[in-house]
Amino acid sequence: MIIIKTKKEIEILREGGRRLATVLYKVKEKITPGISTKELDIYAEKLIKDLSDEPAFLNYRPEGAAKPYPASLCVSVNDEVVHGIPSSNRVLKEGDIVSLDLGLRHLGLFTDMAITVPVGAVSEGSERLMQTTEKALQIGIDAAQGGNTVGDIGYAIESFVRSRKENNYGIVEVLSGHGVGRAIHEDPYIPNFGKRGSGNKLVPGMIIAIEPMLNLGTKNVVQDEDGYTIRTADGKKSAHFEHTVLITAGEPEILTQI
Ligand code: MG
């Protein structure tokens, strides 16, 4: 069921989104060769708790998962697409790219955001992958106008990525964006591919997370034995950007921004 948020809920989510973006950009500033992914998780959790908010992913148990997610932050390095579990043994090194995905619960309501960040100097190919994924997110958001459909978002993202033929990026299809607000995952799914005019209509008051994931190689992904980490099937790098967005009668409003 798609939930249309009330004015009061939208106000809370706007503040929650602002707080989430503030936290995530602070965590981004910590990214440097030599830091472990666990240190980033501890820092993110501290920042959220200092605001008297709650990390949304900690102990979250997705449908079908054998155990709850054990951290506040998802940290996915290089060929890891999403849901990487932070570890003190996983130390970032120059040339890595690292995706940070974080959810925050403020006054009972959820927002969701992700960015991919370079560790020191990275290759031109990694840089282009990150830039293209961030641009794909913006193009998806631009298509998320009230009266359009979920398929219009996927179509816009897919057409943009395909228009950069020379890159030949894989668009991850088995993972998608989603409604968000009263829960961290709500209806509808927001795929990063699709047909114009297909799927649910976007109605003012809907709040959705749009989150393209692009791979340097194949679109195919595999899951690690830890039950969470999703990585590219061919071991090539992947990037991920996500915003929580409010559908309005006109231009959509990005909630996860400062
Ligand atoms: Mg999400």
UniProtKB/TrEMBL annotation:
InterPro entries: Creatinase/aminopeptidase-like (IPR036005), Pept_M24 (IPR000994), Pept_M24_MAP (IPR001714), Pept_M24A_MAP1 (IPR002467). GO terms for molecular function: initiator methionyl aminopeptidase activity; metal ion binding; metalloaminopeptidase activity. It is an enzyme of class 3 (hydrolase). A divalent metal cation 1 binds at D101, D112, E242. Substrate binds at H83, H185. Keywords: Aminopeptidase, Hydrolase, Metal-binding, Protease. SUPFAM superfamilies: Creatinase/aminopeptidase. Residues 12-249 form the Peptidase M24 domain. It catalyses: Release of N-terminal amino acids, preferentially methionine, from peptides and arylamides. Binds 2 divalent metal cations per subunit. Has a high-affinity and a low affinity metal-binding site. The true nature of the physiological cofactor is under debate. The enzyme is active with cobalt, zinc, manganese or divalent iron ions. Most likely, methionine aminopeptidases function as mononuclear Fe(2+)-metalloproteases under physiological conditions, and the catalytically relevant metal-binding site has been assigned to the histidine-containing high-affinity site. Gene3D superfamilies: Creatinase/methionine aminopeptidase superfamily. A divalent metal cation 2 binds at D112, H178, E211, E242. It comes from the Bacteria. Its EC number is 3.4.11.18. Its cofactor is Co(2+); Zn(2+); Mn(2+); Fe(2+). GO terms for biological process: proteolysis. NCBIfam families: met_pdase_I (TIGR00500). HAMAP family: MetAP_1 (MF_01974). Monomer. Removes the N-terminal methionine from nascent proteins. The N-terminal methionine is often cleaved when the second residue in the primary sequence is small and uncharged (Met-Ala-, Cys, Gly, Pro, Ser, Thr, or Val). Requires deformylation of the N(alpha)-formylated initiator methionine before it can be hydrolyzed. This is Methionine aminopeptidase. The gene is map.
